[in-house]
Design brief:
Largest sheet: 8 strands, parallel
Number of strands: 35
Structural class: alpha+beta
Strand order of the largest sheet: 15-14-13-12-8-5-4-16
Number of helices: 14
Radius of gyration: 27 Å
Shape: globular
Length: 619
């Protein structure tokens, strides 16, 4: 095989012409792309396979259920908006109000995939917020709020073609313990006082429950009895609240991982499909438990402002833009990052400007988050209906590929993700109060060359742009784009399932990287090889390498297939940041069929690798 011809070109984003002499052909067409990789460094080395699912977007494609859509009662329960809660806090919650929202959702939103009616905290509480319990120590519906019972409500929701959700705090309610020592249903010899620690240590985000000791055999039986009751009533979703690690609490008393596992087991025993959503501000350090035993996890505090509207921009919509990026790698086949209620249906009640409502809806959609509104569905205004029912935006959400920002923790942000059809979702956000220019460069998005741009919310073409798109965005505003490269683009994450690493190379978090991850620690003897790049015809392809380098510039060895290693000097990061990727476009000669691309150490540490995007050159 002949050596590389290596030519440095000058442009806004430097391009490297990286061509195998004598192998050029006519511009080829793409075939199916693989997502595997192998690794060699010329001698025996430890080889590790990145086990799937890995990259968030690619893993999500394997999931059966996309993020759910629906409605939740808590936003209106918690608001001081005039007339909502005439009998005091959370008095909005009662049977007729819930069923009114269910009927409105069946009429207005069900055709767009909204199906869950979730009843939040208070269904078992009196107007004075005192819960009642049945003869087995389980919460029972308050006879004034739900006079015909929870099964009746679920049945009515089902008659509308919808699904029903219900709520519990984690642990054994202190008031339930104090109400008596109840025999546990289906567990002879077990009672509720048997299942807690003798010192009655408290748990959950409010210390409103005693911590359950799951080393005691009766503990699982109690959870089983609660799950069996919800299944008998016909509920399809359970929100388990106040869960730790998280909910602003730390320490062993607030570690409820055993509770979440117990609920997972209990639900399975019922034989009914019940989604388990856990809440709130959960600890990412426990993500394996959340992924193994839950369907979704609340990453942040309540979105509600507990004020005269449902939310405000600063309490607490805006903090999601800074908190979501760290969670991006964890969304996918094992569950979804839950951002809380999407209250964009009525500007006056929501307490937001129109620009803020659109930004709010955009972030939730591109994050592959569950979309459940807390608005009064009977009072949707024109913009609210558009934001909740735009089919193109809903399709972005349904594909289950969470976007990530190019530069996290900035006032002007560009978020991007490659869609299942090869196009890109690109969202421009201005989080400042004043208008500002937000500039999306295609090299930052992860590809090269011109692309067709479409304004998704407006539903109109913005033409073809050579290397990016910039716009003046109003304060707290957004522009949501669909960007389609003129040359078909095949993106492969460095951390994609099946990739093989050698030596010290490993997957690390990177909030500015596509998928929230990168492959780094490319020291001596380390390598990453991307395997399974498939093209139909031999020829030259533009290959954009997205990498991270907060130093003055590092070199990397790159080899195509079994060819020689070529040393490439990549530009360093001017701002000394290790969470912001840069792009270099190489022209590589690929053979027909499957190709490999190997990154290896050529002295010192190499840059971290985020993503490889392959495009047919010359189109």
């Amino acid at each position: 095989m002949k050596p590389f011809r290596y030519v440095r070109q000058s442009s806004r984003t430097r391009k490297l012409a990286f061509v195998l002499a004598g192998t050029l052909a006519a511009v080829p067409a793409f075939g199916p792309a693989g997502l595997a990789a192998s690794s060699e460094d010329g001698k025996r080395a430890e080889t590790r396979v990145i086990a799937g699912p890995g990259a968030a977007g690619q893993a999500a494609d394997q999931t059966i259920d996309p993020p759910y859509r629906g409605w939740s009662s808590w936003s209106m329960q918690s608001s001081n908006y005039p007339g909502l809660n005439p009998r005091g806090g959370a008095s909005w919650l009662h049977e007729e109000n819930v069923l009114t929202q269910a009927r409105a959702m069946a009429k207005e939103l069900a055709a767009y995939g909204y199906e869950y009616i979730n009843i939040d905290s208070g269904w078992s509480a009196t107007w004075e917020w005192r819960s009642g319990y049945d003869e087995h120590g389980r919460q029972r519906p308050d006879p004034e709020r739900f006079p015909r019972g929870m099964k009746y409500v679920a049945d009515e929701i089902h008659r509308l073609g919808l699904k029903a959700g219900i709520y519990l705090p984690v642990g054994l309610d202190r008031s339930g313990y104090e109400a008596g020592d109840f025999p546990i249903a289906g567990a002879p010899g077990c009672s509720t006082h048997d299942i807690v620690y003798p010192d009655l240590r408290t748990t959950n985000g409010w210390d409103s429950a005693y911590k359950i000791d799951f080393t005691k055999p009766c503990a699982q039986a109690y959870i089983d009895s609660q799950a069996a009751q919800f299944a008998e009533w016909g509920y399809d979703l359970l929100k388990l609240d106040g869960v730790g690690p998280g909910s602003f609490k730390t320490g062993p008393n607030y570690d409820n991982r055993a509770d979440v596992e117990a609920w997972h087991k209990a639900i399975a025993k019922t034989g009914r499909t019940i989604q388990l959503e856990i809440s709130w501000s959960l600890d990412r350090g426990a993500i394996k438990t959340w992924q193994d035993y839950a369907d979704g996890w609340r990453i942040d505090t309540d979105v509600e402002c507990y004020c005269d509207t449902l939310v405000t921009w600063t309490s607490s919509v805006d903090n999601r833009f800074y908190d979501v990026p760290a969670w991006v790698p964890h969304a996918g086949a094992k569950g979804w990052n839950n951002l809380d209620a999407l209250n964009v249906g009525n500007g006056e009640m929501d307490g937001l400007t129109d620009d803020e409502r659109r930004s709010y809806a955009t972030l939730w959609a591109i994050s592959a988050a569950p979309l459940y509104t807390g608005d009064d569905i009977t009072k949707l205004d024109r913009l609210g209906r558009q934001l909740l029912t735009n089919r193109e935006v809903l399709a972005i959400n349904t594909q289950g590929r969470p976007a990530s920002p190019v530069i996290p923790r900035a006032l002007q942000q560009v978020w991007r993700v490659q869609n299942t059809d090869g196009s890109y979702t690109v969202a421009l956000f201005n989080l400042d109060r004043r208008p500002a220019v937000v500039d999306a460069r295609w090299s930052d998005v992860g590809f090269a060359g011109p692309a067709a741009v479409r304004d998704v919310w407006a539903g109109r073409s913005l033409g073809v742009r050579a290397d990016g798109y910039a716009a003046t965005i109003p304060g707290h505003g957004t522009l949501l784009l669909r960007v389609t490269p003129k040359s078909p683009a095949q993106g492969i994450e460095a951390e994609a399932p099946g990739n093989l690493l050698t030596g010290s190379a490993k997957v690390n978090e990177c909030q500015g990287c596509a998928g929230g991850l990168k492959v780094g620690d490319l020291s001596a003897g380390a390598s990453l090889t991307v395997k399974g790049i498939k093209v139909e015809r031999a020829g030259t392809y533009d290959v954009t390498v997205s990498y991270v380098d907060g130093s003055d510039g590092r070199s990397i060895g790159i080899a195509v297939n079994d060819g020689p290693v070529q040393r490439v000097e990549l530009g360093g990061g001017a701002d000394d940041r290790w969470d912001r990727p840069q792009g270099e476009t190489l022209k590589l000669a690929l053979k027909a069929g499957e190709n490999t691309l190997t990154f290896s150490n050529v002295g010192g540490y190499g840059p971290d690798i985020d993503r490889v995007t392959v495009q047919a050159a010359g189109r």
